[in-house]
Write a structure and sequence with these properties.
Blueprint (H helix, E strand, L loop, with lengths): L2 E2 L4 E3 L5 E3 L9 E4 L2 E4 L12 E4 L3 E2 L2 E2 L3 E4 L1 H8 L5 E2 L3 H11 L32 E3 L4 E3 L5 E4 L5 E4 L4 E4 L11 E2 L2
Antiparallel strand pairs: 1-2, 2-3, 4-5, 6-9, 7-8, 10-16, 11-12, 13-14, 14-15
Length: 183
């Protein structure tokens, strides 16, 4: 039992005064190799166009809560307002894949639940969620449980599926965003 006082000291059971320990919030970033990434998807709606906010995104019995999917313009618009962080480039993603050793070595960046064909270990803390993407034509989520799809600053996408990660050209769909720390 500890009694906290207004001067941020605590009285411990051994009858000694000590400083109140600082509470460190859990980090929302992870360093992988030479890069520091957010380990959560961007979740900002600035009221502008190009954003699909979907509540209760669920894959294989796991509810990932509210997810945000962005057009290229919306992703760039919002990322440009976040000090110290930016949208990753194709080169940034290629650096991450190089650190993994292979585009087929994705278990360490996949979340530990929700994947339809094998969860990851998330050993590197990236925590890629299988939340698919938002198809603007049909207004539906696509590939839930099977894919994470991320936008880049240079308007390509990187798709992480059950077995590997690869680059592709975007369609008119909206995709998740992970930010990378400015160097």
């Amino acid at each position: 039992m500890a009694i906290y006082t207004t001067n941020n000291k605590i009285w411990k059971l051994d009858n000694k005064w000590v400083n109140k320990p600082e509470v460190v919030p859990p980090s929302d970033e992870v360093t992988i190799g030479i890069q520091t990434w957010k380990n959560v998807n961007l979740a900002i709606d600035d009221g502008g166009t190009g954003i699909a906010k979907i509540d209760n995104v669920t894959a294989n019995g796991v509810n990932f809560g509210t997810q945000y999917y962005y057009s290229n313009a919306a992703a760039n618009r919002i990322a440009n307002t976040i000090t110290g962080w930016r949208l990753p480039t194709t080169s940034d993603w290629q650096t991450l894949i190089s650190y993994l050793g292979s585009s087929w070595n994705v278990q360490g960046i996949k979340s530990t639940s929700g994947w339809s064909n094998g969860n990851g270990t998330n050993a590197l803390g990236f925590n890629s969620l299988p939340v698919g993407y938002y198809d603007g034509i049909s207004s539906t989520l696509t590939n839930i449980g099977d894919r994470s799809v991320y936008r880049t600053a240079d308007n390509t996408i990187f798709i992480l599926d059950n077995s590997h990660i690869y680059q592709s050209d975007p369609t008119a769909a909206r995709y998740s965003v992970r930010l990378i720390k400015d160097l």
